[in-house]
Design brief:
The complex is a heterodimer of chains A (about 475) and B (about 300). By secondary structure, chain A is α/β, with parallel strands linked by helices. In chain A, about 50% of the residues lie in helices and about 10% in strands. Chain A has one domain. The longest helix of chain A has 26 residues. Chain B is α/β, with parallel strands linked by helices. In chain B, the strands form two sheets. Chain B has a four-stranded parallel sheet, with helices on both faces. Chain B has a two-stranded parallel ribbon with strand order 1-2. Classes of the chains: A alpha/beta (about 475), B alpha/beta (about 300). The interface between A and B is large, with 48 and 44 residues.
């Protein structure tokens, strides 16, 4: 029996769909409304070029994402203290949300603002005026956003991991501190394999590292925890952090189920773009942990419903692509599907925020192990090994590594990952650089991605 | 730090310029050099001070197995955890050197080595105004090559003439020392060579009463307390070190030198300008040949502004 293909909607079409849904009794959360209002109210013009999933679950997901700054301002007005966590992607917010009255978010997320606003925000030229030019990764937009204060509210407290992090981010965060935004730096050592005879620890995701590195991170997280607790006017304790771990695992569990359902389905029931957004919720719950659970539950229910009724969002013969790194332009995920691909797996740079945090050990030890499993703090070969493992399990037919313009890790990691994929799985792969607004590069992007998809299709024919 | 039986040398001096997309030119050349030394059976040690070198080790060092080592420098330096991490790395590095055939030395010998290193560094530091900019840079390079400091040679510096400038930035290799010549030819005087291969590499001059104890803790502390670099978080130590010299030597302008694709140094231009309220000229390794007319003209114009 063939699958029914559900076409994506343009922003205009979503408005019509929205009216239909409302007239048929759609109940929305407090941040609900038509998607087009984000263009008129916030200048998110890129939405006009994107294609969206048509479900109410996707509507909720998008509205949740696009109202984050507004929700943060309301939280601040209601007395919450805001924590700007930087770089670690998934550890510090777990701790912050366990403390009443704190709300953590990643200012790093501003790297998508130039895309969403199609650079009308001028954050990138403003960052250049502050000394951080186009030779740096688009996360430099964060610097300008801090300075002009017009995007996210200025956090009450800033914390940033340092050490085995990308040079761009480290340099930008240092510049931020020099501009008058004090930062609590904590050490994230480079992950390495233990030497013979050295005490070792297994990390979430299966990697093994030296005990002394976990001890270092645990000690650093205790220091961060004390600072967060002080901000919240509470006393840090294992009981608090245990609660944090359990709550994080609820979100991670939902995401794991969603990824399993979508990526392993014969025909994807949720589009690539919405999956990227959904995965992003893991790192800081888009500033609202309870709502994240609700959003993901809706999306998972929708995916399951579609799977059981044989509804898909891509053609049945779409090429199954494993995607590495987030894209600076969200439109790239649409293009993958428009050109005949579908997402069957991902490593958007924060796989450690998707793995369950161990609950059978002291919480800071568990969080330290999870933080050290960050794909960006260890050798690219470790990351490649996971990509190979997951691409194999998802029956991927091709691998794409998205280069982040100017990012220090992008200079070498793609080659390592794609070589590992070719060697272990014999799959074709390609590295593509995606700018915050990739329209001008679309012909090049099309050439490279379409050639990859074509190659993957040709391999199907050759198989006996 | 090198135990008896081994010889160590910084590989900087032998590097030549080469560009590769997205990779810092220094890191790129370091990798090629590491490959070459690895093929000759030499051990190679990388420092983890930047992402590019860390990732370079994954590509070149890891395949060399037990003859390659990545020293994991903590970026932070104000916490107990950072010190303990450095201390543990120090032990791991010691074990690596022993595996290569080095022999651990007595505490007394180590104390003597520390004393000697301190003396040599002190002597080198004090010679900054006795030599030409190139001469001083070459003396430091020689010190890093074989531990010797030959600064007794007659002064080749032209007194206190010329506009005092600070050259700040990443490693300045032998082939790039022409930049220092160009500054002097344009009427400048390099009053502070704060490149990675310059005076800054000699570390902080911290007064120690009597002889330093020669145990491994002291040796680790000796090095940990002397790191002054752009990659530290916060990198206030670098700024404090610079401020002291910029004020003491009446520096009137800063030349910021960085390798192409080196984010860590490139990002400091605006902060340096704000911190010292001095004019800044930014030079990158793409313009590093001193016979490059554009470079010569840029330096000359900068000196003219400073005059």
């Amino acid at each position: 029996m063939k699958h029914c293909l559900l076409k994506p909607l343009s922003l205009d079409a979503w408005d019509d769909r929205y009216r239909e849904l409302v007239s048929s009794g759609l109940i929305e959360p407090f941040y609900g409304g038509p998607l087009s209002r984000h263009v008129t109210a916030s200048g998110d013009h890129r939405l006009e070029r994107l294609r969206f999933d048509s479900s109410p679950a996707a509507l909720r997901l998008w509205n949740f994402l696009l109202t984050e700054n507004e929700r943060l301002r309301k939280a601040r007005a209601a007395g919450d203290r805001l924590v700007g966590a930087m770089k670690d992607l998934g550890t510090v917010p777990v701790m912050a949300y366990a403390l009443e009255g704190l709300r953590a978010f990643y200012p790093d997320g501003t790297w998508w603002t130039p895309c969403l606003m199609e650079e009308t925000d001028c954050l990138l030229p403003k960052a250049e005026a502050l000394g951080i030019d186009a030779s740096f990764c688009p996360v430099r937009a964060m610097l300008a956003a801090f300075q002009d204060g017009g995007h996210f509210p200025r956090p009450d407290f800033l914390v940033c991991s340092a050490g085995a992090v990308c040079d761009d981010f480290s340099a930008i965060a240092q510049r931020l501190e020099k501009l008058g935004f004090p930062v609590l730096w904590w050490e994230m050592p480079r992950r390495r394999a233990p030497e013979p005879g050295e005490a070792q620890v297994v990390l979430p995701g299966g990697m093994v590292t030296a005990r002394e590195l976990v001890d270092c991170v645990r000690e650093e997280l205790a220091r961060v925890g004390e600072a967060l607790a002080e901000l919240a006017g509470q006393t840090p304790s294992d009981a608090i952090w245990n609660k944090a771990v359990r709550a994080a695992n609820q979100v991670r569990g939902l995401l794991a189920e969603l990824r399993r359902t979508v990526y392993h389905a014969p025909v994807a029931p949720v589009p690539a773009l919405e999956m990227l957004i959904a995965e992003m919720l893991a790192i800081h719950y888009c500033s609202d942990r309870e709502e994240t659970v609700a959003v993901l539950t809706d999306l998972l229910d929708e995916a399951r419903r579609r799977l059981s009724t044989r509804i898909g969002v891509v053609a049945e013969n779409a090429v199954r692509v494993f995607w590495v790194n987030p894209v600076a332009d969200l439109r790239a995920m649409n293009l993958l599907e428009e050109w005949g691909g579908c997402l069957c797996g991902s490593d958007f740079m924060f796989t450690h925020a998707l793995d369950p945090i161990p609950e059978d050990m002291p919480p800071l030890e568990a969080l330290a192990r999870t933080a050290l499993a960050d794909p960006m703090v260890g050798p690219a070969a470790d990351r490649a090994a996971r990509v190979v493992r997951e691409a194999r399990a998802a029956k991927a037919e091709a691998v794409v590594v998205a280069r982040i313009p100017g990012a220090s890790h992008s200079a070498t990691e793609g080659r390592v990952i794609l070589e590992a994929v070719r060697h272990a799985l014999g799959l074709p792969g390609v590295e593509v650089e995606i700018a915050p607004v990739c329209d001008a590069m679309q012909p090049t992007l099309a050439g490279r991605l379409q050639a990859l998809l074509e190659t993957a299709r040709a391999r199907r024919v050759k198989k006996p | 730090m090198v135990p008896r039986g081994l010889f160590s040398a910084r590989a900087f001096g032998t590097l030549t310029l080469r560009m590769a997309e997205g990779i810092c030119s220094f890191a790129q050349q370091s990798l090629e050099l590491a490959r070459m030394h690895g093929a000759q059976g030499n051990a190679v040690v990388f420092g983890s001070s930047c992402d590019q070198m860390r990732r370079g080790f994954d590509i070149v060092g890891v395949p060399q197995g037990t003859r390659a080592f990545l020293f994991n420098f903590p970026a932070t330096w104000q916490s107990g955890a950072a010190w303990r991490l450095f201390r543990a790395e120090f032990d791991r590095f010691t074990r690596f050197l022993e595996r290569l055939g080095g022999c651990r030395q007595s505490d007394e010998s180590v104390a003597a080595i520390i004393d000697s290193a301190r003396d040599t560094r002190t002597r080198l530091r004090s010679s900054w105004n006795k030599l030409s900019a190139r001469g001083f840079a070459e003396c430091i390079a020689r010190f890093h090559w074989d531990g010797r400091a030959i600064v007794e040679c007659a002064s080749d510096a032209d007194g206190d003439t010329g506009v005092p400038v600070a050259v700040v930035g990443g490693p300045l290799m032998q082939a790039q020392l022409g930049i220092l010549d160009a500054i002097e030819l344009a009427g400048g005087r390099v009053a502070v060579n704060a490149t990675e291969t310059g005076e800054r590499s000699l570390g902080l001059e911290t007064p120690v009463q009597g002889r330093v104890a020669g145990n491994i803790d002291c040796l680790a502390q000796f090095f940990f307390s002397r790191i002054i670099d752009v990659w530290q978080r916060p990198n206030t130590r670098l700024y404090a070190w610079l401020r002291e010299r910029i004020e003491e030597r009446n520096v009137r302008g800063i030349v910021l030198w960085h390798h192409v694709a080196c984010d860590l140094w490139r990002a400091e231009a605006a902060s340096l300008r704000e911190a010292f309220n001095l004019p800044i000229l930014t030079l990158d390794s793409e313009q590093a040949r001193s016979d490059d007319l554009r470079l010569v003209h840029r330096i000359a114009a900068f000196m003219e502004i400073l005059r």
